[in-house]
Amino acid sequence: MTTGAVSPRRADTRRNHERILAAAAASLTASGELAFNTIAKAAGVGVGTVYRHFPTRDALVLAVYAREVEHLVDVVPVLLREQSPQDAFHAWATDHLARYMMTKRGLAEALHAATKPHEDVAGKAYEAMVDAMSTLIAANVQAGTVRPDIAAETVLRGLGGLFFLDPRGDWRGEAEALTDLLWRGMQPDRSEIAPGALRGAEARQSERSIDPIYP
Amino acid sequence: MTTGAVSPRRADTRRNHERILAAAAASLTASGELAFNTIAKAAGVGVGTVYRHFPTRDALVLAVYAREVEHLVDVVPVLLREQSPQDAFHAWATDHLARYMMTKRGLAEALHAATKPHEDVAGKAYEAMVDAMSTLIAANVQAGTVRPDIAAETVLRGLGGLFFLDPRGDWRGEAEALTDLLWRGMQPDRSEIAPGALRGAEARQSERSIDPIYP
Amino acid sequence: MTTGAVSPRRADTRRNHERILAAAAASLTASGELAFNTIAKAAGVGVGTVYRHFPTRDALVLAVYAREVEHLVDVVPVLLREQSPQDAFHAWATDHLARYMMTKRGLAEALHAATKPHEDVAGKAYEAMVDAMSTLIAANVQAGTVRPDIAAETVLRGLGGLFFLDPRGDWRGEAEALTDLLWRGMQPDRSEIAPGALRGAEARQSERSIDPIYP
Amino acid sequence: MTTGAVSPRRADTRRNHERILAAAAASLTASGELAFNTIAKAAGVGVGTVYRHFPTRDALVLAVYAREVEHLVDVVPVLLREQSPQDAFHAWATDHLARYMMTKRGLAEALHAATKPHEDVAGKAYEAMVDAMSTLIAANVQAGTVRPDIAAETVLRGLGGLFFLDPRGDWRGEAEALTDLLWRGMQPDRSEIAPGALRGAEARQSERSIDPIYP
DNA sequence: CATGAATGAGTCTTCATTCAT
DNA sequence: AATGAATGAAGACTCATTCAT
Description:
- Four copies of one chain form a homotetramer.
- By secondary structure, chain A is mainly α.
- The first copy, chain A, has two domains: 1-55, Homeodomain-like (Arc Repressor Mutant, subunit A, Orthogonal Bundle); 56-210, Tetracycline Repressor, domain 2.
- Chain A is 68% helix and 0% strand.
- Chain A has helices at residues 8-31, 36-43, 47-53, 57-82, 85-103, 105-113, 121-143, 152-159, 171-186, 199-205.
- In chain A, helix 1 (8-31) packs across helix 4, helix 5 (85-103) crosses helix 6 and helix 5 (85-103) crosses helix 9.
- In chain A, 39% of the residues are buried.
- The interface between A and B is large, with 42 and 41 residues.
- Chain A binds a DNA duplex through residues 7-9, 12-13, 16, 35-38, 40, 45-49, 51-52, 57.
């Protein structure tokens, strides 16, 4: 009753699926191109096999994105477990989302094509990302570091700008600048929050932050 | 030696240039496609002519974008003349930029392709947009409604998220939500700004704004 | 040691044979297509199974046609038993052959591909049809309604024109017109046949028939 | 005002058109296949050129058939000028139509695809053939050798059986047998025609003709 | 300068056929 | 025997690009 009971054929098929997905992801990342013939060659299978696994181009594209979104979404709980909500937010945005946005421009397209949630597979991906962001925001609202009336979609859209980063430049710095800008916009109004609550975040958030020392 | 002396040929050539640009813009807007043969037919010229005017696809694409960016940029001084800096900022973002981002996805591409300024024609377009945003920000800094350390690029990138709006949905509301979010992030820290400076902006910005009643 | 002893495997195999044949016939009739993969799916078996039963496309096609030709051939004795030779001829041509020719264009192709009798399986089908026609002609010669020097192949070829009928039009009327035309051509010369022998046939054959009453 | 005024480019284009048509006709005749790539190669042009001249497969097929039908139709007046109506009929059927039917199976397809006259290009071809046959029949009716109530379509359909001839066999003999059969069917009833009117035709029609012993 | 026919590389897509299980 | 995944050749079709007129 081991996994060995699975037919070798099945294993091969699964491996093919993986290889095709990997090849497609690579191609999409590298050039945005997605030629079935090319993918087949890169994956070391016949074109027919690619067609068998992914009948249409969309099926393939979405499978690729679904996989990446999954990664993106799965990391959220981990981040929240290991650090404070605001740090988790920053980390997710600058470390994870930014990287994805830059490399896989397809992801952004998915975001774009699929604003109508529930509609199709692309919608699922979008939803999943919104969920991830919602979780991060909720944790921060809980911690009092973010206003409760912030819509996850809006923040996500703002971070959509990460899409325009140039991987060859100082994308890290710019990702942080954008994240900070949005983060500031998400914060509760000063007068409403307990003094000191923001300290940590503020300190991280920007080196230029002026410490508002009260006597 | 007047301009009237321009040869008719010149006039034809200029007209061709325009027609090609128009056809390309239409095609780009409608379907995102940009087949030279199709453009030529739509413009009523031979393919060769298109090639003469725009040697490469990029040249054509960029010419189209440059034109749109121009519109976008030109409206800034007008907005600033007619209303307060913060209103001008909001108006530009939600009325002009959002509309362009949605319809002419090429604009977003320009933003993306051209982070490396000064480099090429795309760079010019990017620069022009950054300049426009800089102007808006400067006016607001002057008015004390925006922190002086805000980078135009960052804000623009944040607004890049407008690209993901769905023209068939409540894009207006969402554009405003995003603009507000960014706007909040751009504001000076409360303690730093002169009391009252934000009044107008705050009032517009959000209905939920806390009224800072002073005795 | 009865027939009941046949292994279940055998029964399955036979059933598969039938199902494949049925699926192929349906596909051929419906669209003229004959994709092995499709047939396999329609028959609910694997492609490999189709190959096992019919090693080549031709084998499959011919098996299908053979079956239909069989129907066509089997009906001849019945017709001859139930009606006069000339009526049997007309009935076979207009009711049975016409219908087959129209629906299963493959039949006609078989006729075409297989003029060389005895050559292959297609030849068998052709031969069978020639035999059927020969039987009909012989009966009519016997009855004195057809000249004895008529070749079955020739008549069959003439009826091959039924292939060109349009199932959506007045194919019945046209089938009758063609059959009548050929029938007239097959008749004995007037002077040779016993007066009156043709009466029945003539009356049926055409409303316009003039009865040559001799005083 | 010479033909030399035509641009050479035009001439080339026209030549290409011809070559493609020729290649297509050859391929159709030889194998019934009609692969654009193959045609292009055979015609010595690029695939694109073939597509430019004949946007769809049908356009190409029909152009080929139209050409052949034209030949077939054009020969009718010539035949009628040079010989008696009945000889013209026989000649057209056995010499011209048979040959075309056998070699260019496309012709038969035209017959088949286009029973609905006036409908499309295929319809035109069909019509043209019906016209040709009508002309032949009319001439024979005039001469008293054919009944006046014979429909050209019916005869043509009967001759459609020529399609099933095997070019490698005694197709000539069989074509004549079929033509004779139909011809007999087309004749006026004996009692109606002037004695002797049929002489020539009868004599030609069949060697087995009954010997008309005169005292 | 303008034209648009020609070219052909590159993709897409289907299917017959094989073969390991 | 049956299965169906894999393969890849073959044909369809598009479009960027050239070039003769």
